[in-house]
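Batch manifest, entry 17 of 40.
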Amino acid sequence: MSGIINIAIEELVKQRYELPAFSTLLRLARSARSKVNRAYHDLIYDSMGASTKHLLLDILKLPKGEAKSQFDKIKNEPKRSTVPEFKDCLDHLKWLQDKNIAINTFSNIPELKIRQFDAEARSLDLSSMNDIPERKRLVLVAALILKQVARSLDYVANIFI
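Output type: structure tokens
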């Protein structure tokens, strides 16, 4: 957010305009960021097939009789570097890779945006995720899966090293 505001101030000074109140700049920066994010959400969502959308929506459901959803399972981090834990980590990585069906939808998206979508998804619980619009929800869960696969691969590589 501060980057957007700094660029706006720099451009206003360059053009010799009077600087508006900081709250005005903050409101404009938030609006610009929301507009850009919505455009990315639309681009990613529209590139997903119906079966991909259906699978991602299923991840965000709590199965009857279960305490945790698949969404919660995706956010699991590896524990220690013991042999049994390593086997569990490999099983979890395989499971994640099976869920990583929207990987191609991020091919033209900047890495920074993917990390932001991942961070937002990680910060939300299942109930909060299901409260946001479907387009954004599916983009966030797809980004979370994509980045979690990368984290798990890094973890496995570090253990082998």
